[in-house]
DNA sequence: TTAGGGTTAG
């Protein structure tokens, strides 16, 4: 038009603007702006420019044009600028502009109201949303379908589903957008069933779903999952497209649906056949694999994405980081972190938290901590929860608890996940006071009726030695899932309460709840602790016969242990030889333990041969066999084995015991003499030892590893970590106080006997939780029936 | 100038 000579008129410019928008041609927009800038700008042209600048991504210049309009601004100018901010995700700016219009008493039209509402929805700013709602009512734009639809979405995104539903029900003539908005609201608030029934209701109302409706309802099929409905939507989508070419969003939603329904072959075929794909489509496949635990596949697709030169986005990284964590692939994970930095996704919270989690799961806590300490993320509850879970994943239970406390002192409100993450730490440490405090906290937050939280509480109480509290809580739970039954069963097993466990097991079988492999493991391990061979065999058989559950390695290890302890070593060995899975170290270890108990050298050697193949670095098994040799007097063999161990540099995991005194944890490692109170502890122990000798106790040194003189062996026994912890506790608590010790390994035979005697001499109740179970010592007796 | 949509961390 310039070739023609004259300056372009307003109409030509207005006609040109939509094309500029379509191509996001910012430079062209500036040029047009330059042409009109010296003239008296008509509001209609200025509004067009504001819109075009926003669509080209430049809200700053758009705002300048808007500001320059000053007095000649009309309702459309305000609506355009607010909508422009929303278009560019500058929701706070949109809301501020809305508030400014209120201060200036400008009358806004329905477009401005709709845009402002969507900004309030995106920022989940309920107060703001409600004030826009009142404004809409005052100004009489409230009866508009678009305004009502925007209100429905705003309330849904602010978590006010009841209000959203009420408003939706009140819309007289619902259009397809209103229906789709409500379907989407149900999907996003985790109500897939409601979404699907609304989707069906809409069709009965005579409204034919469009592309957006289908894309909105597909995640509901994935969440349920309902593969058949997903497939029928796929057919519907193809039928309504004569060329059968799916658009990117619909293709992506379908890929995600198939992947989440576990139908990876369909997901892959569809994905490969899609004509239009973007990075989100790739993410759907990558995340589908990652969430199903198919980490290698996820990474494989990621590398394929890179090989075609497509750049990942932040969601891609959120998919691949957990895949690295799953594979414990720290190097790959660190490369992903590098990529996050390269592409500038560091400021994305999802990415940051996934990176923190990846490092923690791969055992690199310092890297997690460094990322976490970057202040900006310090305010996010998920970052805190990730850190708590990360500490727990690495066995740092006291760090997990400390982090939880720090979080509350920083005024970050813990949520359900925080509680579920920190409760296992209190169980791990048997930190009852902490556990009780958390329980009251749970009640205050109103989380007590939440099933996973309740399950954690049962587990915590039983691990803290309070089986009665665990039972009471379990019995009063309104809703239980299979996990509730499983943790209760495991609690009975941990406390050696086989009868209660077996009766609970038959209750759950009769209750109609579907039992799983862990239910069986709980029941079997209760039988193991009680030595109930017949019952255990029956349960093991019914696993396959009645529930079609294939026993896992853990079940076999448990059965071998049960049979072996009962002296049925041949049956145990033939079970190992006939099992369909390749026996692992736990299975052979159970046999070895039983061989020690019954001094069976022939079988012990078979077990050790297999163990040294499976776990060449683990010394514990060698110790057991050398103990068997020593026990039957084959000293030369015992010595040879120990010499071979020291040559190959095998190390035994050092024993460690903890005790809680006045809210502080004290840890003792075997042989540690560095404690400030060591002298007094030693003296106290010598006195106890003299008493024990008077009672006729002769130390059983067969569990001592070192090849030394008998007297020295006794000294080594005396430095076993549980004895250090017990003497420390005796020194630092009032007479008569109960003592609770936790140990990382199993208690040895002599420590077991000695603890019984100490409980009698000192008149204390002593509870020891070792890696296998609880031992209650009182007045010279121990509650457990299966110990030596 | 406007409302609904695909992938996302603990």
Task: Explain how this protein is built.
The chain is mainly α. Among the domains are: 395-603, Tetratricopeptide repeat domain (Serine Threonine Protein Phosphatase 5, Tetratricopeptide repeat, Alpha Horseshoe), CATH 1.25.40.10; 656-782, no CATH class. Helices cover 68% and strands 4% of the residues. It has a six-stranded mixed β-sheet, with helices on one face. The N and C termini lie far apart (101 Å). The protein binds one DNA strand of 10 nucleotides through helix 3, helix 5, helix 7, helix 9 and helix 11.
According to CATH, the fold-level topology of the domain at 395-603 is Serine Threonine Protein Phosphatase 5, Tetratricopeptide repeat
Low-confidence stretches: 1-5
What do we call the CATH homologous superfamily of the domain at 395-603?
Tetratricopeptide repeat domain
Query: Number of DSSP strands?
Result: 6
What value does the Rg take, in angstroms? 34 Å
The helicity comes to: 55-70%
| Structural class determined from secondary elements | mainly alpha
Report how far apart the termini are.
101 Å
Kindly report the oligomeric state of this protein.
Answer: single chain
Broad CATH class of the domain at 395-603: Mainly Alpha
Q: How many strands, what sense, and barrel or not for the largest sheet? A: 6 strands, mixed
Q: Tell me what portion of residues adopts beta-strand conformation.
A: under 5%
**Which sequence of strands runs across the widest sheet?**
2-1-3-4-5-6
**What count of helical segments does DSSP give?**
42
PPR repeats: 74-108, 175-209, 278-312, 380-414, 481-515
Pfam families: DYW_deaminase, E_motif, PPR, PPR_2
InterPro entries: DYW_dom (IPR032867), E_motif (IPR046848), PPR_At4g14850-like_plant (IPR046960), PPR_rpt (IPR002885), TPR-like_helical_dom_sf (IPR011990)
GO molecular function: RNA binding; zinc ion binding
């Amino acid at each position: 038009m310039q070739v023609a000579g004259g300056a372009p008129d307003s109409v030509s410019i207005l006609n040109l603007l939509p094309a500029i928008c379509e191509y996001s041609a910012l430079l062209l927009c500036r040029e047009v702006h330059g042409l009109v800038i010296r003239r008296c700008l008509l509001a209609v042209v200025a509004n067009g420019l504001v819109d075009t600048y926003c669509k080209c991504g430049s809200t700053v210049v758009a705002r300048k044009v808007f500001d320059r309009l000053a007095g000649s601004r009309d309702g459309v100018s305000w609506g355009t600028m607010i909508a422009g901010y929303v278009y560019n995700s500058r929701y706070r700016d949109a809301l501020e502009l809305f508030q400014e219009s209120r201060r200036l008493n400008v009358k806004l039209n329905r477009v401005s109201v709709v845009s402002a509402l969507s900004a309030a929805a995106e920022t989940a700013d309920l107060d703001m949303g409600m004030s826009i709602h009142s404004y809409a009512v005052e100004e009489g734009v409230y009866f508009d379908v678009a305004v009502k639809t925007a209100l429905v979405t705003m309330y849904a995104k602010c978590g006010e589903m009841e209000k959203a539903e009420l408003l939706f029900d009140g819309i007289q003539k619902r259009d397809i957008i209103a229906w789709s908005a409500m379907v989407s609201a149900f999907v996003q608030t985790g109500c897939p069933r409601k979404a699907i029934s609304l989707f069906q209701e809409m069709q009965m109302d005579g409204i034919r779903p469009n592309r957006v409706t289908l894309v909105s309802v597909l995640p509901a099929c994935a969440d349920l999952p309902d593969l058949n409905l997903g497939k029928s939507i796929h057919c519907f989508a193809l039928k309504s497209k004569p060329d059968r070419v799916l658009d990117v969003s619909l293709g992506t939603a379908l890929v995600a649906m198939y992947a989440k329904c576990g139908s990876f072959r369909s997901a892959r075929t569809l994905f490969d056949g899609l004509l239009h794909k973007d990075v989100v489509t790739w993410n759907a496949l990558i995340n589908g694999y990652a969430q199903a635990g198919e980490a290698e596949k996820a990474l494989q697709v990621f590398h394929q994405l890179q090989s075609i030169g497509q750049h990942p986005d932040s969601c891609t990284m959120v998919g691949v980081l957990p895949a690295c964590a799953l594979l414990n692939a720290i190097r790959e994970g660190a490369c992903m972190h590098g990529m996050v930095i390269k592409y500038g996704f560091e400021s994305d919270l999802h990415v940051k938290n996934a990176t923190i989690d990846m490092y923690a799961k791969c055992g690199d806590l310092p890297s997690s901590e460094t990322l976490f300490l970057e202040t900006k993320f310090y305010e996010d509850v998920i970052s805190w929860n990730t850190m708590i879970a990360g500490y727990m994943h690495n066995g740092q239970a006291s760090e997990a608890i400390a982090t939880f406390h720090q979080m509350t002192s920083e005024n970050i409100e813990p949520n359900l996940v925080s509680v579920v993450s920190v409760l296992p730490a209190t169980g791990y440490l048997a930190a009852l006071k902490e556990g009780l405090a958390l329980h009251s906290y749970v009640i205050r937050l109103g989380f007590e009726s939440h099933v996973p939280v309740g399950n954690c509480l049962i587990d915590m109480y039983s691990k803290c030695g309070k089986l009665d509290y665990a039972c009471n809580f379990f019995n009063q739970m309104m809703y239980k899932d299979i996990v509730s039954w499983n943790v209760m069963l495991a609690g009975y097993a941990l406390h050696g309460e086989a009868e209660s466990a077996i009766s609970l097991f038959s209750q759950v079988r009769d209750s109609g709840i579907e039992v799983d492999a862990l239910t069986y493991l709980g029941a079997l391990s209760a039988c193991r602790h009680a030595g109930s061979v017949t019952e255990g065999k029956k349960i093991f058989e019914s696993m396959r016969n009645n529930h079609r559950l294939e026993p896992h390695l853990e079940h076999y290890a448990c059965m071998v242990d049960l049979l072996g302890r009962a002296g049925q070593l041949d049956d145990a060995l033939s079970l190992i030889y006939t099992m369909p899975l390749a026996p692992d170290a736990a299975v052979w270890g159970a046999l070895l333990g039983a061989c020690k108990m019954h001094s069976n050298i022939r079988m012990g050697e078979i077990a050790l041969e297999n163990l040294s193949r499976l776990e060449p670095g683990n010394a514990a098994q060698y110790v057991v066999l050398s103990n068997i040799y020593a026990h039957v007097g084959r000293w030369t063999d015992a010595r040879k084995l120990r010499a071979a161990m020291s040559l190959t540099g095998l190390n035994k995991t050092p024993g460690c015991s903890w005790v809680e005194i006045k809210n502080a944890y004290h840890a003792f490692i075997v042989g540690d003499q560095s404690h400030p109170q060591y002298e007094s502890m030693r003296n106290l122990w010598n006195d106890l030892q003299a008493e024990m000798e008077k009672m006729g106790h002769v130390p059983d040194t067969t569990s001592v590893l070192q090849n030394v003189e008998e007297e020295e062996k006794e000294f080594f026994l005396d430095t076993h970590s549980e004895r250090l912890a017990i003497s420390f506790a005796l020194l630092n608590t009032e007479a008569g106080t109960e003592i609770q010790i936790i140990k990382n390994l199993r208690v040895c035979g002599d420590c077991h006997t000695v603890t019984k005697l100490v409980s009698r001499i000192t008149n204390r109740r002593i509870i020891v939780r070792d890696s296998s179970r609880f031992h209650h010592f009182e007045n010279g007796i121990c509650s457990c029936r299966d110990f030596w």
